[in-house]
Specification:
Elements lengths: L1 H30 L6 E6 L10 E3 L2 E3 L3 E5 L4 E7 L10 H17 L4 E8 L2 E6 L2 H20 L8 H4 L17
Parallel strand pairs: 5-6
Antiparallel strand pairs: 1-4, 2-3, 4-5, 6-7
Amino acid sequence: MVVFGGTALLLILIVYWLISRGADGEIFNKFGVSSLSFTLVSSDLGRSSSGNRLTEFGVTGEADAVFRSRHGNQIIVGEFKSRMYKGYVRPYEFFQTILYIGLARDHFSASKASGVIAYADGKVEIAFDQVVFDALVGMRGEMLGGLKNKKALNTIPLHKRMDVLKANRGLRLNHRPG
């Protein structure tokens, strides 16, 4: 009877492991990341939700997925959007991903970092841009000042203040939702 109980427990553990690996596999596939080269260190998606809040420089965020390379010091941040791609990235999607890449890069002490925005019908790779990240973090004070004064301190959007696509030349931003 003890052998049967131990075998049943082992079988339950194996089934649970296979189910949880299946959920992780879906996440790897969604972002086009190799499970042979990377491990999933944080996820805010589905059954395998193990999200870690990234807090650095007074800014906090939680990426949909963070992958860390098995053989190096590389991070890939994944953000999922349920809309169709339609050939463009919305500014907030781009800025959110750049911010998460920078936070994860610092949090995990990675020397290389990039991102992937996965849409319902495709995905877009995002190169990390330190200048844009620094500008986004710098906007924290601007945002706090705007909340205090109940008025934006600077009404010019970031993508009109600087070249936000310098490291992502092939990307097309659409500034109007729809």
